[in-house]
Amino acid sequence: MFKKLGQNIVKSMIFKRVMVVTGIALLIGSVFIAIKPEPFLKLGYAGVFFFNLLSGPGMFLLPTLAMRMNIFGLAFFSALGMALNDSVGWIVGSSGEGIIPASEKVQKISKSIQRFGPGALLVWSLIPFPYDLVGILAGYLKIPYWKYIIPTFLGKFIRFILISGGVVTFFG
């Protein structure tokens, strides 16, 4: 019953509109924070974590915040929030529903996950790519959650260290 209700909600036009408006609002929020980060900085690492947990586009905050926060703390809390945000895709995929059409790109990602497991997830997480698709496929392929979340976190952490460190090195 709940599965059917969830499918109906996700397919509804209201849900789609709310998601588009929310996504746009969070991207606009990222721009405002990047322009004037001082009020956001009062929230510290907890703000970084929750922004990434709720929205995901926190990567756009890294260049601005890297100049004002410790890059390891910034990368850690960004990666933790974003990895937990990406867990939604894994949960959706683990429901067993085949919700993604079997395109060539989907087949390529699926084969890499099946062949290399967590190593493939680590590599896919390093790439600035819509990782939700990878999460859905990992859930659908019944990859255990801990084998999903650890490489997801590590890949994002490494990527955010590289981005933040590059910003500080180049501009700092």
Please, could you describe this protein's structure?
Helix content is 77%, strand content 0%. It is an all-alpha fold and 172 residues long. The longest helix has 27 residues, at 145-171. It is globular, with a radius of gyration of 17 Å. The mean pLDDT is 79.
Mean pLDDT: 79
Structural class: mainly alpha
User: Unreliable segments (pLDDT under 50, ≥5 consecutive)?
Assistant: none
Number of helices: 10
Task: Indicate the overall shape.
Answer: globular
Number of domains: 1
Topology record:
Blueprint: H1 2-11, H2 13-35, H3 38-41, H4 44-54, H5 62-65, H6 71-93, H7 104-116, H8 118-126, H9 132-140, H10 145-171
Helix pairs in contact: 4-6, 6-9, 6-10, 7-8, 7-9, 8-10
Key features of this structure:
single chain; 172 residues; mainly alpha; 0% strand
Short description:
With 172 residues, the chain is mostly helical.
